[in-house]
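PROTEIN FOLDING TASK:
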Amino acid sequence: MKKIIKNGIIVTASDTFQAELLIEDGKIAQIGSNLSAIGAEIIDANGCLVFPGGIDPHTHLDMPFGGTVTKDDFETGTMAAAFGGTTTVIDFCLTNKGKPLKNAIQTWHDKSKEKAVIDYGFHLMISEINDDVLNELPQVIDEEGITSFKVFMAYKNVFQADDETLFQTLATAKDLGALVMVHAENGDVIDYLTKKALAEGKTEPIYHALTRPSELEGEATGRAARFAGLANSQLYVVHVSCEDAVQKIAEARNKGFDVWGETCPQYLVLDQSYLEKPNFEGAKYVWSPPLREKWNQEALWNALKCGQLQTIGSDQCSFDFKGQKDLGRDDFTKIPNGGPIIEDRLSMLFSEGVKKGRISLNQFVDLTSTRAAKLFGLFPKKGTITVGADADLVIFDPNVERIISAETHHMAVDYNAFEGMKVTGEPVSVLVRGEYVVRDKQFVGKPGSGQYLKRAKYSMNTPLNQGETLSIK
C-alpha cells in the first residue's frame, strides 16, 4: 500500500529538512511538498524526526558460547531491534575448522529463516586459512553476498586465530573486495593472566576486567592495523572500548591506512565498577572487551565526534542472569560473555549523544545507519533517505522521556544492562521496505518477513558524506 509521511523533519547523515515522503512498492518514490497519491495512507509525523532505519553491524543471535546459547534468537532479537529503530542487522556466522564454510552459512540461514522480522545479512568468521578456505571464499562472496570476514585475536583455544591467519585473511580480502573485521585483544596474554588469577583464588566477575587490561586491546588493535597497512588491505575494528585502541586507530588512519573503528553504547555509558556489584550482579556486565575505567568514555565520545570512530554496533549477545550467567558463579572465566544491547542502541546514543551536545543529529544518523551501509555494501539501498532507496524508516519522538527496564523491553533476556537509566527519545513507528513492523509502539510485524541481504563488495569508492575526504595509500 502506498504511504505518505507528512509533517516530519527528515534527517540524513548530511542534511536536516522538512519534507514529505511518498512510499510505493517498498521504496521511497518521491521527496517533496504537498505530495499526493490515490489511495495512499497518510502518516502524520508531526513533532517527530524521520530518519533511515538503523543498521546494526554487530549482533550475535542464536549463537552458541560457553556451553550455552544466546537467549535472543532471530525472532526475539530482530523484534527488539525493530522496537529500538533498527531495520537491518548483520550477524556473525561462526565456522568450524576443517568444515566447509557453506555448512556454517547454511546453519545461519536455518537459524534466521522464518524468524527475522527485519532485514539481515551475515559476516563470516575466519578461523583458519588453507587451500579449501581460499577456494571457497570467492563463492561465498559471489553467491552469498557475504563481503566481510571476522578474525578473533582473543578467546584462545576457542575462536582465536594466529597472526598468520589474520595477515593472510587481510591479503586475501584485498584481492576479493571484502572487509576484514577483528576482535582486537591479545588472547595469549589474557590466557596467562586469567590462569594466574584463578590460581590465586580470584574468581569474582571483576577479574574478567582486570585480566583483560586496556593495554592488551591497544596492542592488538595496533598490530592488526599494521598488518592492514602492510597488506594494503582494509580493516574494521569491532567494539572499541578504550583510549588505547582509539589512539592506534587514529595513528593508522593518519598514516593513510584503510582502517575503521566501531564502538558500542555500553562502553559510552557504563564503566568497570559495574563488575564490582555485590551478590554476583557484576556478572551481568561481563563481556569482551570488558567495561573500562570511566575516563575512557570521554575518549570514545571525542573519537565519535572527530570521526576517529565511525560506527555504533550493539554487540548484542544476551544471556539470562539466572541460568546462564551464573554458570560462572565460582569461576569468572565460565560466565558467558555478552549483554543485551540491541534494543537500546539508538535511544542511548540519541539521549547521551545528541541531547547532551556530544554529537550532531546528522552524526547520529551516520553512526547508527549510513556509515555501516557504506562499509558493508548496502548503500544506497539502505542507510539513507533518497528516491529509490528501500523505505526503511524510523519515526522518532525526540522529546519523550522514559526509564529503561527489563520489565518493558522486548528482548527475551531477564535483565537490562541499562536498568533504571532515563533516556530522551524513542521510536514511535518503524517501517521496513514500506511496511510497518512497529506502529505506534506496537509490534505489527511478522516473523519471517525479514529478507536476507546479499551485499556488494567493499569499495573505497563508496560516496562519503558531503565535504568529507579520506586519503588512502
Observations:
- The first strand starts at residue 3 and ends at 6.
- The two ends are 48 Å apart (CA to CA).
- Confidence is low (pLDDT under 50) at residues 463-473.
